[in-house]
Amino acid sequence: MSPDSGSATRLPPALGSATDLEPQPLATSDRGEGPYIRRFTPVERLTHGLMVASFFGLVLSGLPLHFSQAPWARTMMGIFGGVQGAGVFHRFCGVITFGYFFLHLGMLAGRFSRAADKREFLLGPRSMVPSLKDARDVAGMFRWFFRRGPRPMFDRYSYMEKFDYWAVFWGIAIIGGSGLLLWFPIFFSRFLPGWIFNVATIVHGDEALLAMGFIFTIHFFNSNLRPEKFPIDVVIFTGRARESYMKEEHPLEYEREHAAGNLAALEEPPPSRTAYLWSVTLGFIAIATGLVLTGLVLYAVLR
Questions:
Q1: Which helix (H) or strand (E) holds 102?
Q2: 3-state class (DSSP) for residue 106
Q3: Running DSSP on this structure, what letter comes out for residue 27?
Q4: CA distances from 22 to 17, 156, 288 (A)
Q5: CA 20 to 30 Å from 60, out of 6, 160, 213, 265?
Q6: What CATH fold (topology level) applies to the domain 13-302?
Q7: Rounded CA gap, 237 and 60, in Å?
Q8: pLDDT digits (tens, 9 = 90+) for 153-175
Q9: Closest CA to 178 of 152, 151, 198, 156
Q10: Residues 6+ positions from 124 with CB-CB distance below 8 Å
Q11: Distance (Å, rounded) from C-alpha 121 to C-alpha 113?
Q12: CA-to-CA distance for 41 and 43, rounded, in angstroms?
């Protein structure tokens, strides 16, 4: 997420005049040297954008109901025009969630059908399926934390990214499934016992709270706030990152593509000034909003 000015504005060097005296761009993906390399396709970026928008909508409209006793809940609920308005907005964001979920499944099905090597598609280095290497990387990271070994080298996706990815599947199955029960109780009551809806109410709220806490703390830290990426990383929004970024964050992928002679085909122009500014702005708004909401939840729980 970043801009150009020639003065104090911190944009990617490729977007303006670059000298060694200029401050580094805010976004990690724009720092360093080398050409920009494509990391995410437009469809993948669109899917993530829909996920961000719908997730924040679900949290903002559902949180004041879950913590209705908190002093800030009434104010937040008023933004939507009351409980009924919040409910309509919450369901609308739920529809978006199922929409991007099935869009992603369709995209995966298409890629799988076109893959020449189906096993490679499922278990290869570009797959999100967890592997033994991920387990070794987890152990390696703990050794690195305590200075007992080198930092693990990651491929296309690290174990952190895979965990986030599968958490979405788990969340949509649990939160989305229980939400459908609560949205259409008359329909489901025709073949489900009444106690199921009590369970669904508890599961829907508590699992959603768990998802919110994880995204706004662990995910934000791993993706943006850890020292190597602070204060922000916008590669998922711009879809591209400098060669230096790829060497540091995904060295095994970089080495594989370099050895195969694919880097030239993956090169992209720098993100436009407008795209960079929007990415940085929306990214910081998302991080700030998530941290504020986490603080409100802690206040409601501990007061």
A1: helix 83-114
A2: helix
A3: B
A4: 9, 31, 26
A5: 160
A6: Fumarate Reductase Cytochrome B subunit (1.20.950)
A7: 22
A8: 999 999 999 999 999 999 999 99
A9: 198
A10: 117
A11: 10
A12: 5
